TrEMBL record:
PANTHER family: PEROXISOMAL SARCOSINE OXIDASE
Domain of life according to the entry: Eukaryota
GO molecular function annotations of the record: flavin adenine dinucleotide binding; L-pipecolate oxidase activity; proline dehydrogenase activity; sarcosine oxidase activity
UniProt entry tagged with the keyword Nuclease: no
Residue ranges, annotated region (Disordered): 416-436
FAD dependent oxidoreductase domain boundaries: 10-385
Species whose genome carries this gene: Kwoniella heveanensis BCC8398
Protein name: Sarcosine oxidase
A Pfam family matched in the record: DAO
Lineage: Eukaryota, Fungi, Dikarya, Basidiomycota, Agaricomycotina
Length: 458
């Protein structure tokens, strides 16, 4: 006898970045869910979302942690599928550190070991000459700051914004609903149950389950009156990005370069994108933007924030971007910056993501805490989120991604600087999922660059 058709669970997903998009994809493919994705931005992919960018590094095994190394290899298998429309470019990645930066070097060593253990042909490079020898002779390279590390021929980068767009189109094709300009400002609570969400317009959107994947806006959303629920020590941090424009001749010269990633000071850069833009950034401590309206919780200040349209970054960070470029491609360091941007991480204490049910509710799931390294997992992360939703978390990660209040902070202090435990001046993760150097600062207008700083330096 045929089983009666099961009623599908109606899920509202808040946020159309990679956490929300990938969750929607895996739920729709599973077949048991009706999915509505809501995003506050009127244009999708949201231009100021962390996921929307020229490019992101796609590491293949390049994690100190074997479980994450394995998960990104799962992601690579999916990135290579035609459904991602060629948004993934397998250029290889240099993972580098100076020998006197112990944390960076330890990360590189462990990541190299994981690559080899997983059968990747990663090759050690014991100094600048070994690094240079892997470039076409026509590419003018620099001192690489005396770094060493390894080259992984697998991995590379993704055209990030386009990949999100491709993913959202797949969500629609699978029958999901995506609503732009639908800002969630509250939850409809009935005891421990969430009946749906409230939009800024006042409209209520009913659901059986809510997944909040609002990226760096999640901490301030939970501090807002409409949600007003406990939330772990997760912080929005602004990270500095800059781009330069290559001429067609320069594009030709630099077209075969890999991604370069310094695991000691966090500087990294990409090959030119299809428009000849080269992006560089720093995976670092970042800045915070605490606001009185959110009781001091840091709120992203993006190009869509009135008064911040120019995307100015701290001048100090611009100088660090240029210095990093001078060490790797000295000729390109002489060029003007064409854009800068503060791009916002949703940072947890250890760098592990936050994917779990909220303990105060029966049907509210958090899928966030990207901590500056989640994009590469876009095709696969929804698989893991779905397991959490179905209360069958992957044993390799379930506990690490669990909702926490003070325990992780205390544990991190015990491990000595394993995480950023204070709102300002905290040292960033050295022992968690990822490695990061530096101290957080409060974002101050007076520290931001002026337009003339973007010009090439004499
Ligand atoms: C500068 C920078 C460089 C990075 N580089 C890399 C890299 O090289 N490799 C890598 O793997 N990862 C990288 N990352 C990390 C990666 O981009 C993030 O971990 C990931 O994109 C986070 O996705 P998300 O879905 O959590 O957040 P987002 O992409 O920010 O999406 C959140 C969405 O929620 C929406 N939203 C927010 N509030 C509401 C609300 N109240 N109602 C409705 N919608 C709402 C927003 O509009 C947004 O569209 C980088 C991040 C940054 C900032």
């Amino acid at each position: 006898m045929a089983a009666a058709a099961e009623k599908k669970t109606h899920v509202v997903i808040v946020g159309a970045g990679i956490f929300g998009m990938s969750t929607a994809l895996w739920m729709l493919r599973d077949g048991k869910y009706n999915v509505t994705v809501l995003d506050k931005c009127g244009i999708l992919p949201a231009p100021d979302a962390a996921s929307t960018d020229l490019n992101k590094i796609v590491r293949a095994g390049d994690y100190a942690d074997p479980a994450l190394a394995k998960l990104c290899l799962d992601a690579i298998d999916l990135w290579r599928l035609p459904e991602w429309k060629g948004t993934y470019h397998e250029t290889g990645v240099f993972a580098l550190s100076t020998s006197d930066e112990k944390d960076g070097l330890a990360f590189v060593d462990a990541a190299y070991k994981n690559c080899r253990d997983y059968g990747l042909d990663a090759q050690l490079v014991d100094g600048p000459n070994a690094i240079k020898s892997r470039y076409p002779s026509s590419v003018p390279t620099g001192s690489f700051g005396g770094r060493q590390g390894y080259f992984n021929p697998i991995g590379g980068w993704a055209e990030a914004g386009r990949a999100v767009d491709v993913g959202l189109k797949m969500v629609r094709q699978l029958g999901g609903t995506i609503r732009a300009g639908a800002e969630v400002t509250g939850l409809v609570k009935e005891g421990k149950e969430i009946k749906g969400v409230v939009l800024k317009s006042g409209e209520e959107v009913k659901s059986d389950l809510v997944v909040v994947a609002a990226g760096a806006w999640t901490p301030s959303l939970f501090a807002s009156p409409g949600v007003a629920s406990r939330f772990p020590d997760v912080i929005a941090t602004g990270q500095s990005v800059g781009t330069i424009q290559l001429t067609p001749e320069e594009v030709e010269t630099y077209s075969k370069i890999p991604v370069v990633f310094n695991l000691d000071d966090g500087w990294y850069c990409f090959p030119p994108n299809p428009d000849g833009l080269v992006k560089m950034a720093i995976h670092g401590a970042g800045v915070i933007n605490p606001q009185p309206s959110t009781n001091g919780v840091s709120v992203p200040r993006t190009k869509l924030t009135p008064g911040a349209e120019d995307g100015a970054i701290p001048l100090e960070m611009l100088k660090r971007l240029r210095k990093g470029m001078a060490e790797v491609y000295p000729e390109l360091a002489k060029k003007d910056f064409v854009t800068t941007r503060l791009c916002w991480y949703c940072d947890t204490v250890t760098g592990d993501w936050l994917i779990d049910y909220h303990p105060d509710y029966t049907n509210l799931v958090l899928a966030t805490g990207g901590s500056g390294h989640a994009f590469k997992f876009a095709p696969v992360i929804g698989r893991e989120i779905l397991r959490v939703v179905e209360r069958d978390p992957n044993p390799s990660y379930g506990e690490r991604w669990a909702f926490y209040f003070d325990e992780k902070v205390v544990a991190a202090e015990g491990k000595e600087a394993a995480g950023d435990v204070s709102r300002e001046g905290g040292e960033t993760s050295k022992a968690g999922a990822d490695v990061r150097a530096g101290m957080r600062k409060v974002l101050r207008e007076e520290d931001l660059l002026k337009p003339q700083d973007l010009k090439a330096q004499a």
